[in-house]
Model the fold of this input.
Amino acid sequence: MLSPHALGLTPSLRRAAFSPGKARPSMQNNVMKNAIRSSTSLKPEDGTTILNKQRLQRPSRLGFCAAHVIEFVHGLPDAVKYTGKFNLALPFSFHPWNGIRHMLWDSGKFLTVKGVYSTGYAVLGATTISTLVLMFQ
Done:
């Protein structure tokens, strides 16, 4: 990446920054006009009008809406739907159960190797059950 130092512009930039009297007067006038222009306030209805004009100039959507997405998913085979549900439900099931496990560790419980393994199996069991419940709802 080209920096001002690599291009040898550092001394000239420093001179321009610390000697504002040497800057072009037309540039100073433009800066002041822009500062004044940007600080003027609008009436609420004028702001709404500008916003509505900008909304009309936005590019259109990508060509699909919620109805098309629902229709597409409805047409998928059941195996694909359940695989997708499983992939979404698993992290949402595992995270809370494992969080409870960690809170138990923070309270000083189940810190033995046997306790760690037993809570791990309990988390996996609870995750399996809650994932299946979420999948078939």
Summary: The radius of gyration is 31 Å. Helices lie at 4-7, 10-18, 25-38, 44-57, 66-74, 78-106, 113-135. The CA atoms of residues 4 and 63 lie 45 Å apart.
